[in-house]
Design a protein that fits this description.
The protein is an alpha+beta fold. The chain is built from seven helices and eleven strands. The chain has two domains: 7-128, no CATH class; 142-244, no CATH class. It binds zinc ion. The site of zinc ion has 8 residues, from loops.
Length: 258
C-alpha cells in the first residue's frame, strides 16, 4: 500500500492533494538527496520542511522505489518589491515531475553521457511495471559493464587504489568474477620479491623499492603462483583483456529506450 498523499495549501489557490511520481532503481547503490520545501498550514502560515528522498540499494534481482510528491519552495515574490520594501517571500509550486527528474539526474549524474548511468528511472504510474523494471535493468547492465571495464583498466594499469566499493558492487550485480575484487580490509601481507619488505597482498608495486612486481616476476622468470594478484595481472595481460571486455570509451551498447 502506498503512503497517503499529503495535502498542499496554496494561499489564494485553495488546497489540493499532491500528485506523486514513483522513481524506480535496480542499482546496488543507495541514493539520497535533501530538498528544501515548505508546507503551508491551514492558517496560511508556512513552515520549512526538509524532505529527504532515499532510494535503497537494490538486491541483485530486486528493485527499490521512492515516491516523490508535489511541493513548494519559498521564493521572492517580485511583485512585492518596491523602492522602500525588499519584498516578501512566497511559496512557488514545484511539481512531483520536476523533483522526480531532478532526483534521477542526481542518482545518474556524471555518467549520463557515456552510459545512461545507473538504472534509475521515473515510472509512468504509481507502481513500476514489469516493462519498466526490465528497461531499468537493461540500462543498468550497460552501466555495470562500464564500471567493471573501468575496474579492469585501473587494475591493469596498476591503479588498484582507485578501484572503489562501487566497482565491486557493480561486478557483484553482474555476477562476474573479477580478480580485483579483493576486500582491502581483508588484505593480508606479502613479501616484496625484490627487497623483501612486507607489502599489502593486493599491491602490484612495492612502496619501498618501487618495483613493479609483474615486471619483476617476468624478468626474473619467477613463478607467480604464490602471488595471486601478480598471477591474475599476468593472466589478464596474456589473454588480452581487451578481447573479453571492451574498454571504456568504446561504444558498448546503447541503452534501450522506449
Ligand atoms: Zn620492494
Amino acid at each position: 500500500m502506498s503512503a497517503p498523499s499529503p495535502t498542499i495549501h496554496y494561499p489564494g489557490r485553495g488546497s489540493f492533494t499532491a500528485a506523486s511520481r514513483t522513481v524506480l532503481s535496480v542499482s546496488p547503490i543507495e541514493y539520497r538527496k535533501n530538498y528544501n520545501r515548505t508546507a503551508t498550514q491551514e492558517d496560511g502560515s508556512t513552515r520549512a520542511a526538509n524532505v529527504e528522498y532515499v532510494l535503497r540499494a537494490a538486491t541483485r534481482d530486486g528493485y527499490s522505489t521512492v515516491k516523490i510528491f508535489d511541493g513548494q519552495q519559498m521564493i521572492l515574490d517580485r511583485s512585492s518589491v518596491t523602492d522602500e520594501h525588499q519584498g516578501n517571500m512566497g511559496p512557488m509550486p514545484i511539481t512531483a515531475d520536476q523533483d522526480a527528474s531532478d532526483f534521477v539526474a542526481h542518482c545518474t549524474g556524471g555518467t549520463v553521457m557515456r552510459t545512461g548511468g545507473p538504472g534509475v528511472i521515473v515510472c509512468a504510474g504509481d507502481e513500476p511495471t514489469d516493462a519498466e523494471i526490465k528497461k531499468a535493468r537493461e540500462i543498468h547492465t550497460v552501466y555495470a559493464r562500464f564500471m567493471v571495464n573501468d575496474g579492469h583498466t585501473k587494475f591493469s594499469s596498476g591503479n588498484f587504489k582507485e578501484i572503489t566499493e562501487e566497482h565491486r558492487r557493480q561486478a557483484d550485480w553482474l555476477g562476474v568474477n573479477v580478480p580485483w575484487r579483493v576486500e582491502l580490509e581483508q588484505a593480508s601481507v606479502k613479501k616484496c620479491p625484490a627487497c623483501a619488505e612486507s607489502i599489502l597482498s593486493p599491491a602490484l608495486q612495492c612502496k619501498f623499492c618501487q618495483t613493479f612486481l609483474p615486471d619483476f616476476y617476468v624478468k626474473a622468470r619467477l613463478n607467480p603462483e604464490d602471488d595471486a594478484m601478480v598471477k591474475h595481472y599476468l593472466a589478464m595481460k596474456g589473454e588480452g583483456i581487451k578481447a573479453q571486455h571492451p574498454m571504456p570509451g568504446t561504444p558498448v551498447e546503447a541503452p534501450i529506450r522506449k
